[in-house]
Input
Amino acid sequence: MDGLRQRFERLLEQRNLATEALRALEAKTGVDKRYWAAGATTLLSLYLLFGYGASLLCNLIGFVYPAYASIKAIESPSKEDDTVWLTYWVVYSLFGLAEFFSDLLLSWFPFYYAGKCAFLLFCMIPGPWNGAHMLYHRIIRPLFLKHHQAVDSVVRDLSGRALDVAAGITREVLQTLARSRALVTPAAVVVGSPLLLEPTPK
Output
């Protein structure tokens, strides 16, 4: 329990958007930021368990702060934070892909959105116990290293076929346009020619 409390304290000492808001609340009200954080976490958990629109709230939690942190990482000179957030987005995209196929089934389970939100928070928490880092290095990276050459080959093949299909469609469209123009142009000349040959009245 003390280890969890120390992690919580360390999280509150970091400088980010949430901790700055907690510091501002502490300064205005005189209530310790730890109580504000605990209260906000409790309310958020209760809303995710019983509230309407838990799916939207969960997706906002999983997307908005990481997007903000990613922009900050891009703008910072350090490349370590870029790697942290790229890793998060890789895990997030794979999770989103898996959820797409299982969401209709899983969303009926009680506390699904609370569990999803906890998972996304676990993936974005900084430190050595960052969930995205652990999942990437233990599951995703080994699978990637094992299969990336086959995937690259399939992607190259598919992109070559897609380019061939696009070139064929473009060629057919241009030929159709040329044929339709050839059909329209002589008619316009025939209709217009008597007008051109009539003498202008004096």
